[in-house]
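pasting for the record
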Amino acid sequence: MKTYSFKLLWALTSRHLKMFFKNKITFFFSLLVPFITLAIYLLFLRELEVSAVTSLIEGYGLSDPEPLINAAYNLIDSWMLSGILAVSCISVSLNACHIIISDREKGVNREFIASPVSQGLVTLSYFIFNILVSLIIVTAVLFICLIYLGVVGNFRLTFANFGYIYLVLILSVLSAATVTIFLCSFINNFSIFNSVIAIVSAAVGFLIGGYMPISMLPGVAQNLTAFFPGTYSAGLLRNYFMNDQIVALYDFMMGNAEYAPIAEELLSSISGSFSLDLTVFGSSLSVAWMYGILAISILLFGALNALLSNRNLHLGAIGKRRKARRKALEKQE
């Protein structure tokens, strides 16, 4: 008879956590990926985004555009760092799935199947473990981003917007966990898993508009981003990261006689250029819609994971049996 117990659930989750943090290489690379992305932005992408805004501002023919360009830096940094956070939720969650693949390769799943533990409980323990690891690492990335923004400029962030940012991060981690665990449902060895990590790490930043505005992508690619939950995570994070910066920039422009006449038009152009408002299949999505789609993705992939929980546990065991039969046949030959 299969057993269900909160203590048993926590024991399984604790076991996954200990294994993850004990494996220094896996933990190091899970922590390293977001910071590599941050370093790439600071070294290469920041200047590209700054040049785009500089060209936009200089197009208005201002006699002294430099103070306005400098004032816009916080807006640019906030846009990019919110994208990095959205990408980090996915990349860290995928790296945390290392434990699932390891259990399949080592045949630990066979022990779970043979034990009286509920298969749904085992799947839930993987899910909770993934969320906890992702949330710990992404929270660290968030505070490093906030420290950077506070050091390099006059960054503003109200307590309310900080609360919304963390709420979106929690939802983003939940969504990423359901998607990555579902993706790993079809993987039972590290060679495939490592290939998937390489592909996802390279592509996800562009697929969700994390590294460049969606408006800069070709029409087909823009519509393709609509099918990735991370797109809505990035959109929500940007709204809350940039709200206070837009207000600050508007106040700065209204306090300058030369900048005041173009304040609303310029901010509207910047918002459009940097895809602050998501446009999917020609329709602009409000913040409420972004929340709704993100919630739907969590429910949808959560349900799929629940349906596949039995198959997922047997996947590793089936793979082991196939290898054993193949070796036996080779010996007979």
